[in-house]
Amino acid sequence: MWVIGLLLLITFEAIADIFSKEYSMRGTWQYWILAIVGYIIANAFWLFAIRRGSGLVRGAILFSVGSALVAILIGLIGYHEKISKIELVGIGMGIISIILIFWPDVQLFLKG
Fold it and tell me: DSSP code of 75?
């Protein structure tokens, strides 16, 4: 159940990030308010996830890496930003960290 809360946290964080980017480009107060509201909603789901068992360490790492990956996709696709080679290495390490965090769960699932 905590995974759903974490996914909703990342989703609303991504929405707020889009509004933040729009605010940085346009400077209108409407985008500022939408960004703040998005971050508040996102953090409400953080409270849900941590209460349901994500744990502070595991939840924080998954949130950080997950929201970073989503932000990268938004930047690349939506705003045509560029990524350097060293940043690609960091992205790869983030993906590997998620795999390693879930590795014990994957092993249990495969064993049946």
Answer: I
Residue with tokens 């390693």: 100
- Quote the strand ranges of the chain, DSSP E: none
C-alpha 15/C-alpha 98 separation (Å) is 22
Single pTM value for the model? 0.82
What is the pLDDT, as a whole number, of residue 29?
96
Number of compact structural domains in the chain: 1
**10-residue stretch averages of pLDDT, the chain, 112 residues long:** 94 97 96 98 97 92 92 93 94 90 84 80
**Residue pair 17/71 in contact by the 8 Å Cβ criterion:** yes
6, with CB counted inside 10 A (0-12, 13-18, 19+), is: buried
Domain that holds residue 10: 2-111
**Distance of alpha carbon 59 from alpha carbon 8, whole angstroms:** 13
SS3 32: helix
CB atoms within 10 A of CB 106: 10
